[in-house]
Amino acid sequence: MELIRDKLELLRVLLNEQCSNLEPWQIVSRTAAITLIASYVYSQATHKYLDVGEFHWSEGTQSGTVYNCNDDLTQLMTEVYGMAAWTNPLHPDSFPGLRQMEAEVVRIACRLFQGGPDSCGTVTSGGTESIVLACKAYRDYARNIKGIENPVMVVPVTAHAAFDKAADLLDITIKHVPVDPITQRVDIKAMRRAISGRTCLLVGSSPQFPHGSIDDITAIGKLGLDYDIPVHVDACLGGFLVVFMKQAGFNIRPFDFSVPGVCSISADTHKYGYAPKGSSVILYSKPVFRHYQWFTCPDWPGGVYATATIGGSRAGGIIAACWAALMYHGMDGYVECTKKVITTTRYIAEEIRKIKGIKVMGVPEVSVVAIGSDDFNIYALSDAMKKRGWNLNALQFPACLHLCCTMLHTKEGVANRFIQDVKELTGEILANPEEHKGGSAAIYGMAQSLPDRNLVNEITWIYLDSLYAIKKK
């Protein structure tokens, strides 16, 4: 990068020296030339950075991560973001069209999730923010409406870690309840036993991240009604698949606002909504819940301050691109994509079940196929697959790994290549188990067995520190 800057600076010096005897219009031309050359040089530098890495996601070797790579969609997203790059929904008076776009994204999402006329919501920066905002809303609702000073939320152990993050940030007690060891769906009886007079929120997933199973949302909704506790459905991962599954010809467990007791839903538009990264929605069945999501500061010397989400300023370009993605696909486009993703997922799950030595964990109802083994350390398979270019998600408690299927996995040959690699490598591991005890197999085995979880935290801190390190020349 320094070499590029040096060459660019030398070019400026040379051109400036040659500009001393030029007419004004000639100087403008040379300035334009510098700008064009600078643009080219920095674009090459950008490519150099972005091309670094051993995994080639465009070939469908990643679990999740990138959910669509349609070239036309990529061009559309780039153009729309560029048009709205400087907009900010914090200033709706300056950008009224952007405000309209966000409102329409929310309205579309509410209708897809069977929300009634009172349903409402906001666009957020991602699933974590959607979940944190829902927890904040129910914490404040419990304090102000029910007089609960120290609220508790009850969540399945398989619920997204964003609920733990929300509990940490918002000073809410979190109580985890177990799941069925076969289906990996939350144990409803255990959830009932976990409810107390301080419970402010019950959570279910549709589907949950680790194994792709959908919790019994109907039963959780009934608990919410029986005990007058709001129920949140986390559909961040597969929300924009499950809403189209019936139209695509697949059976689906009840999960949306049509289920009595469901008060809110989080769903990521930047996953199967195929919007750019940094967009999600949090939806509520009625405005009173959303009111407790808002932050207002009426006595600030800078004026009355009010924000809809955690951030003040937000990237208007992301909202505009999210709106454009919805318009681009329409109902038919999303149904067709859903049909491809679900069909591919179920085909992979069916073929994996035929392979000796491994098993499918949970119920792959949407887009996730989780793989475990009773015969060897499953992380050895993750390491072996990595050598063939696959990057899978490693899970724990119980030990397994998963592939989250996207539109990239629906491309011709990708699913069969994955199945064949799993089959071949599983056979090799079963034949020579001693050769596959190092790497992730050793690290994850150690991490799960450590009784002091703070030690795992400290190891994780070192990993996060390393992400901000710059290699010295």
UniProtKB/TrEMBL annotation:
Modified residues (N6-(pyridoxal phosphate)lysine): K271
Principal localisation: endoplasmic reticulum
A GO BP entry: sphingolipid catabolic process
SUPFAM superfamilies associated with the record: PLP-dependent transferases (SSF53383)
Locations listed in the record: Endoplasmic reticulum membrane
Bilayer disposition of the protein: Single-pass membrane protein
Family matches, as Pfam families: Pyridoxal_deC
PANTHER family: PTHR42735, SPHINGOSINE-1-PHOSPHATE LYASE 1
Family designation: Belongs to the group II decarboxylase family. Sphingosine-1-phosphate lyase subfamily.
Molecular function in Gene Ontology: pyridoxal phosphate binding; sphinganine-1-phosphate aldolase activity
Pathway membership, UniProt: Lipid metabolism; sphingolipid metabolism; Sphingolipid metabolism
Cofactors (names): pyridoxal 5'-phosphate
UniProt keyword annotations, A-Z: Endoplasmic reticulum, Lipid metabolism, Lyase, Membrane, Pyridoxal phosphate, Sphingolipid metabolism, Transmembrane, Transmembrane helix
EC number: 4.1.2.27
Name listed for the protein in its UniProt record: sphinganine-1-phosphate aldolase
GO terms under cellular component: endoplasmic reticulum membrane
Gene3D superfamilies found in the cross-reference section: 6.10.140.2150, Aspartate Aminotransferase, domain 1, Type I PLP-dependent aspartate aminotransferase-like (Major domain)
